[in-house]
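User: Some background: our group keeps a shared notebook of sequences we're curious about, and every so often someone picks one and asks for a predicted structure to add to the entry. Today it's my turn. The entry only has the sequence so far, pasted here. Could you supply the structure so I can complete it?
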Amino acid sequence: MHTVALFFFANVLFCLAYMVRDMAYLRAITILAACSTLPYFYFQAVPLYSAMGWQVAFIVINSFNLIVLLLHRRPIKLDEQEQWLHESTLRFLKPRKMRRLLRLAKTHDIKKGEVLIMKDQEPLAVRFTRVSADEIRITNAERVALDGQALMADPTLRSVMLLLGYEQIGDEVPVSLDAMLIRPAS
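Assistant: Of course. Here's the predicted structure to add to the notebook entry:
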């Protein structure tokens, strides 16, 4: 009788687990629910070892994923340079995500007068504007124009332009960048 009650309790926990929004709570509740089903399966007239095996497998998988999830939630300590960068520029990113982004970046110490952009590299000056706590708009800071004749000389681009209804274009094609960085809801 008690094992049947425990089994119903486990199923209520499973339902509750799928209603929570936090993945750590979902995993923890699911582990508790799976553990609660084990006595029910064991104390049947003929123990249901295969069902118990599957529940143990789910417990192990969810336990592993819960540990990984909790390890990724630990606060990280930023060094002095990272802390300055986070406070001055990248406040919209959580420190762990900022560090992941910085791993892709290359840092260089430069001297006064040192060339930052090589010949044949065209920089694009961009402007970052904070729209809200969660949004940053990126626009080009200067006028940008592409060579219209070079565009029309490319057969692929010419086909696209013809499909869009342009038989010819001017010498310059103005281009503007208007992008929005949005922090996903947590």
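Suggested note for the entry: Residues 82-107 form one domain. The mean pLDDT is 82.
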